Records
---
Amino acid sequence: MMHHIELSDVRSDSPAVPPGRRVYAVGDIHGRRDLLALLMDRIDADSRSRPVEKPVEIYLGDYIDRGPDSRGVIDLLIARARTRETICLKGNHEALLLQFMRQPDVLATWRHYGALPTLASYGLYPSLNPSETEQKRLSAGLRGALTGDHTRFLASLVPCAAMGDFLFVHAGVKPGIPLSRQTEHDMMWIREDFLKHESSFEKMIVHGHTPVTAPEFRTNRINVDTGAYATGRLSCVVIEGSDLRVLATD
């Protein structure tokens, strides 16, 4: 049976990142620019109090939708990358936004995932039941509203990142498939097959996508999504060597 690992139970032979490295892995933000700014301040304070040679911040995707300021979240992440080493993964919500710009009729699906606050943050306000013509107009409007740096940011998102014995993805990985052969779709969307899997993967998987009340440490994965847009709790797991710590906004 899969069980929780308490931070104090992590053994010296646990998965590790390379010497001199520290990873700050940040869970799903969902339009909460206010919480992201607060967590960045806490990461900076942590870095000052515990200097390390090569820190890196890995953001696990789902920067947009549901919360009030998706545009502001992307602004902060773009600015952050100018002064810090950052890696930004693609979440399923970013995938839907990118799909909407190519296929306007995906709006009916995307709005169920919290698209309206994202569109509003870019100055776009759909009607209750937008026609095909309006969907095309909104799609073109979003393409026009995205500044060059936002367009480049969205194009630069990656499906996964590996460091030492850890693999960082948005949603998870498909059991039984080598990590080198995972599909982008599974890494952004998978849920139950991954969450119920009890055996080890080739690496310890660090992910978001499925909200939990506090970062969850399991024998084969770490979940960092604490439902920030609804709970006010944006969480970050700090990995240094084989040590694990948590920073959060509450």
---
Amino acid sequence: MARLFGTDGIRGIANKELTPELAFRLGRAAAHFFGREEKHPRFFIGRDTRISGQLLESSLCSGICSSGGEAVVLGVIPTPGVAYLTRKLGGQAGVVISASHNPYADNGIKFFAGSGYKLPDAVEGELEDIILTGMETLPRPTGASVGTISYRQDLAMEYVDYLCETVSGDFSNINVVVDCANGASFEAAPEVFNRLGFNLTLLCDRPNGVNINQHCGSTHMEGLSKAVLSRKADLGIAFDGDADRCLAVDENGQIVDGDQIMLILALNLLNLASLKDKTLVTTVMSNLGLHRAIKQAGGKALVTGVGDRYVLEAMLKQDLSLGGEQSGHIIFNEYSTTGDGLLTALQLISAIRATGKKLSELAAMMTRFPQVLLNVKVRSKEGWEKNVVLQRAIAMAEAELGEEGRILVRASGTEQLIRVMAEGPSLADLERLAGRLVEVVEAEFN
């Protein structure tokens, strides 16, 4: 049987692949696992706005209770809010029910440890083993030992309070448009921005269960760009479905991606002598322009594999302060244990205000190399790294680009996709080379 956990928890079509039965078993296994050290382990559970969220939430909570655990239901809340509250309030684990930027029919379940960090691979492996082979042997507590469920939507305000404490000063002269993606930030974001005094315009803040990420949010920026221009705003902010990342739009309606945001934040920290070891942690997906810009400013970039867990792993190992991904998933070691879109937005705006420059001027400090990214749907991703035909095609493309560019081919950790990226000085060459690689992938894996 295929393993359950991918790079960001368990994902699938809700009620088909990610079923309530699986959610129940997951809750039961997790409460048993964490109950080894705490008799009645406490789980803080949050979700986004998908119609399937309550279905999975109720099943997960039932599973937790059946193993004697305590489920604290937070309601709709950004993913980093769950991590923050789990750590602050002493939970044994936090659970988020969300599929992030995926369409509404998908959903997912991912865990945080009591520390607020994502579970290590080894712990996820143990949970998988229990679910796949050990469910029948789990004890069933009875009487007073049965678990409980409490509903604490009010705790989200403690997360909002904390976010507001990470910045200071007067924001009343800043005109910002915020796209909530009809997702998990739809209540927290306006609370934060209004409390801090921004001149705020909200978009896509009316979720109905099926409109999360629908032509909005960080994967669909067109509406935000138009709104920024029509309102003559200073900038726009777009969150994804679970609000653990954000992208921006400058005053001219141009998208500012995660690489540019990271550079702005890193240079601000460099100026404050607060960027530890003068190092920014990025993934292999970050643009070559980011590497050149940070180097020219006297800093350096440390490169990891794709995925926020690898960014965080490197940050913790070397005690670094800032890292993230081109997608806008950015981690501030000083403030958070995971990527946080709201926190990123506030820190970005603070950095803009500190320079006295417009966002377009700051974004222009990075010259973005042309980059082509193509997603190829495949029947199976198995064995793609060792496929001789594909590896030969990659080597040929790399040889043609030389030292001025690069090729990156990788399998998605959450979807049946193989991603092909080409980067270099000539867009026409990149499109040709990437297209050739896509043909190879389709021929070999479909």
---
Amino acid sequence: MRSTKISIRALVVSATLTVIPLMAATSAFAQTETILHNFSGALTDGYGASGLVLDASGNLYGTTSYGGTYKGGIVFELTPGAGGVWTETVLHNFSGGTDGLEPAAGLVLDAAGNLYGTTVEGGGGSCTRGGPVVGCGTVFELTAGVGGVWTEKILYVFGVRAQDGIWPYSNLVFDAAGNLYGTTSLGGSHALCYMYGKTLTGCGTVFELKPNRNGAWTEKILHNFGAGTDGEIPSAGVVFDAAGNLYGTTTSGGPALCGENGKLRVCGIVFELIPEGTKGWNERQVSLGDSGFSTGLAIDSVGILYGTSDSGGACGNDYNLGCGIAFELSPTAGGTWTLQTIGDFGSGSTPSALTLDAQGNVYGTTDATENYFIPGATVYELLRNATGSWGYTALYQFNNGSGGGYPSGGLVRDAAGNLYGTTQAGGKNGKGVAFEITP
């Protein structure tokens, strides 16, 4: 379940409860779901999982925001064994304090198999979230040692210096030199942001972490959101193109208005950050709030961007301007971008981040927002047709029962075409599952 603390999703996205698919769909659900793990929320396990990452040996890794020894979330590994049985191993329990607390995004692997991620809280920075000081979040590394023991190292603590970013909800990405990049949802040099009557501390940042020879890492803020009609409150990570430009989304800000449950808000933007040497990074708005951008982007080999939004599409009314779309942004020779809707989702079917295969097909999930008992949470595929149009196939539908419900964190795909992901509800213990969808 979602946190009762302040969360970016809670500030930005209000639930719409009816779930009616709007696209014509092939929905035979011929694909097979296999439950790899039922999360329990016990002290020896976690719950509130946020997607998976796959290593070269076929092991899966992920995080949960809650549970574990200190109830502050865990990092876990799922290892395949004989007879299709998967074994969970808890690699780290987050405790708060100088350690991280509440990892809310997935992980990234380096070439040596080390794991990197973010926690929303913990670390010791001076931040409050309606209660005691819990810290502004961290970037951490987990390294495997002798006997399968993993060691955590905190690479950076947010909020320990003036105008720093705080509360990273994003996953991380490496560049070719081994530097890490991500976003913080709040903080930065722009003092205040406003949403639904709330005053927020800073509008968010994009940051770089560079490793030093002494083993420490140095943070550099590449962009502070919130000036004028700029975007505000990024809650997802960034992606690189072949030229070294960064792309991402913000959940609010920008020049356009979107509606949710009778309230209007600015929709957010898709942005590009262009490195300009000693001048720093220059932001350009790629898409100006056509719908409510809430998830990260995927990019293909020719630089086309793919993403989802929590509004936009055909099912809107005066104050709900659509119920969510999948979109494609194609660069043109003149430096502009062409936006095309490639999937239009039914009411309540909030889509997640997208995954691409080598043929350019797109995979994702919808979570049916917070009404778990109405069918509508799916794993789906979008196939590009010869004419350039897109066809939608629902591969699997969740029912909040033993197969899970409320999928979160997107999907990862292996070489055989199997899809892996997590849910935050359903399963044997009602705390979500890790699943595999076999074509």
---
Amino acid sequence: MMLFLSALLVGTIVGLLPGIGLFSAMVLLYPFLLPLPPIDILIFYAVMAGTSQFTGSITACVVGAAGEPSSIPATKEGPLLFARGLGPLAISTTAIGSFIGTIIVASILLLTIDHISAFVGNFYNNNIQTALFVTVMIIIVMAGSNKFIVNLLYAIIGASLANIGLQRYTSEPITFGISAFSNGIPFVALAIGLYSLPQVLRAFSLVDFKLLQSASNTTVSSIKESLIAVKENIAAALRGSAIGMFAGLVPGLTTILASNFSYIVEQFIRKRKQVYNENGDMACLISAETANNSGQLTSMLPLMIFGIPIVGSEVIVLDLIERGGTQVSLNTLLAGGMFQTVAMYFILGGFVSMFIAWQGAKLLTKIYKIPKNFLVTFLVIISSVSVYLFEADSNNQLFNCLCFATCLGFGYLLRKTDTSVILFSFLIYPFMEFSLVRFYAIHFS
């Protein structure tokens, strides 16, 4: 229960605070999650990710700031609906719509997971695994927020850093004569210093806390009017659920594609029927927000069936599980009803998150009433503790801290770019290389 409540809390914060995101949250919590068994790691991640999709729409609707990238459509429709006095209703109906999407997709997957697993097992081989790893890497480079050449350079840097300390097939590990490098670059020091802390601090500097606090006068809509609004837009919610279920499987984009594509489709339909409201359209908002929740669970299927992550935060999940001693392969994470357990917690998390999101702006203002300097100090302390606790039973704390300081310097210099590409490449490279070596051995040796 404590794990579940912790995931709800973290997911709420991730959704409400622009700039943190699932990737940064998993990085900051890495040392705390490392001792957990695979099922607990997966439950924590699923509940946290699902909750962040609910609460991410709150900040987007109130002030037009996306807590999560998948909430970008809400940054357009939400503030317009608030301007018309429909803000509280917009928040409550999107919360209910999101829960509908959660229920529909989770139920379908629970009923069909055995068939999906059997189907995958019939054609799964190293060729597919290799293709998936390479495809994910290409999409990250092509679709990243940086220019292509920058993403490509960052991917090369990440792969190069991953080679430090990595046991080669024909040679000794690369350590540059420094014994501390024999275990590789400490991931937490690299991730927090190079990416998470600089990006979060930059995001905080761009947030208008006074504007967010002004939402304290926002009321909460009644259950009756919210249910009526959902009934009127149930077709949009169902379309969003269907689109999100399939779009969530697209590597690298998942819920971002789900929400944005669903929004475009719904907007097209309503404009063709000449019922689209240029001053804030409730149906488009509900469709987009329903899609990102339904896409969240399906985005975990490649990880749980193939052992292949398709977004950056799932790479960290896989790394946590593998470091804990579990070698992930086909159906490893489906054994013993593991997926069914994760899906049930995902539904429960969605139910609780619906009510959290319902309180929307009230909850938002409570967090933003905390002084910005206090929040920044708290994040710096958590970051330092995470670095220190990583491999705390070893004698490498000083080395970790030095790496953290070095990476933080580079992270500050590169803070205006998306350095998560470096981390993604750093984590996925060993898995991709092993798959490519096996592919070569099978077909060319």
